[in-house]
Structures
1.
Amino acid sequence: MILNKDTAKKTAELLLQIKAIKLSPNNPFTWASGWKSPIYCDNRVTLSYPSVRNFLKEKIARLVEEKHGKPDVIAGVATGAIAIGVLVAQELGVPFVYVRPEPKKHGRKNQIEGFLESGQNVVVIEDLISTGKSSMNAIKALKEADATVKGMVAIFSYGFSIAQETFDAHNLDFTTLSNYDALLEQALDSNYVTEKELETLEAWRVNPSEWNQ
């Protein structure tokens, strides 16, 4: 679910303006998974724009407190959500940790970097939710460290059904500032795409793994 429609559209507008999200229905991108996609999202771009990153920091911090109360710790999912997670933790005045995709193979072999005590309440920050696999991997590591995961907040979600099903199966509460539906609405309102291109973008989301141009 999204925070609210106004915030969702404003977030989408900012991400389009700074090209953190690029839409190219006529010349699709190829994801690392091999999927062809008319959209590419890299929210790390937001870090280069102070006004945008401040907007995201403030909105996410407010959302965390509204949904979950002030947590003991904010956890960012590496690598994309480390920086925004730090900003949110700073805004809330709480400690920060980040979770690697897997434990390091040297040194202390940590998967969770930073100080985390058993039983602490944690809210997880993500920059982008696609299938939900990396998010659940991080949450699994936190739970294995005896943290109490209160929920997750992300900047943007593609809204894939597989992600929703995964989170529901694990009873995970998650909220995003914006999502694919709000993005398409904003893109059309701002003449970023045509009605014909909108049809292509909508068709992709129905079956992204088998979509082609």
Note: The radius of gyration is 17 Å.
2.
Amino acid sequence: MFGSPTGITKVPLPKGTIYKLPGEGNLVAITVDDGTDESVVAAYAHLAERTGMRLTFFANGNMPSWTKHAPLLRPLVDQGQALICNHTWSHPDLTKLSAEQVADQVTRNETFLKNTYGTLGRPFLRPPFGYRNARLNAQLADLGYPVVTMWEGSFSDSGVLPPEVILDNAKQWIGPQRLVIGHANHPPVIEVMDQIVQVIKDKGLTPVHLGDVYAVS
């Protein structure tokens, strides 16, 4: 259904904070956070296999779903269809932690991602809850994350929502050059995943992950 994107000129990795994809075009990046529900993580992996959807995952390594479903996800990462990035080890509010605690959250998750998926998750990190400040931004840059990854649209499914509401949110926020956030936390999103794919197709958009558009090592 979706092939590998073509004709993309990658741009240098910015410093600071990103909310959307760079430039003008017909790309959209669906990003998936957390992973508290194993069935949703598996469903996103199967969706990618079935449709060719390219996805960016922001994983918390303490969630068992990322270990259990590594056999599903690791091939997608290895083939370049999915990008798995750092969302900290256990999803705390980093602005309330000491520098040492922040470093532990980040590097512990890197170790997990390296051992499980063959990647450190750099250079994209999404701070839990989107909470950040200048001190945290500076430390994250020192740790190998010069760009804080936010979003410009959300399925709003970090908590439980009816499937039809999730789909309405997807219809509202999926658009050209949008960076949209969803969560692998609650099963209702599974019921509308194929409809979300159809929204992307109906709007004439090409799904990408962040590594498709930014020049990263």
Note: The chain has one domain: 15-215.
